[in-house]
Amino acid sequence: MAKCGACRKKIGLFGFVCKCGGEFCIAHRAHEDHPCTYDYKKEAREELAERLAKGLCIAEKIVPI
User: Fold this and answer.
1) N or C: which terminal CB in the chain sees fewer CB atoms within 10 Å?
2) How does pLDDT run across 9-34, given as a tens digit for each residue?
3) In this structure, are strands 16-17 and 23-24 parallel, antiparallel, or unpaired?
4) What single-letter DSSP state applies at residue 58?
């Protein structure tokens, strides 16, 4: 049986796996609630740079009626 990486509580069937690789209970599932080492800002920057390079961030100038 797995235990939460923050509070060591037994998880059971409802464990949440974070992008940092840890498994946490419902109280510590958010990255603000446990000592998360994953860099979410870096992931968002890389995704945005990739989308800009492909030209996917172009808005329509005239909305068709």
Assistant:
1) C
2) 999 888 899 999 999 999 999 989 99
3) antiparallel
4) P
Q: Residue 17: CA atoms inside 13 Å, Cβ hemisphere, count?
A: 3
Q: Is the pTM of this model over 0.70?
A: no
Q: Which amino acid is at 62?
A: I
Query: Which helix (H) or strand (E) element contains residue 4?
Result: none
Task: Supply the DSSP string of 17-52, one letter for each residue.
Answer: E-TTS-EE-GGG-STTTTT----HHHHHHHHHHHHH
Contacts of 37 (CB under 8 A, 6+ apart): 20
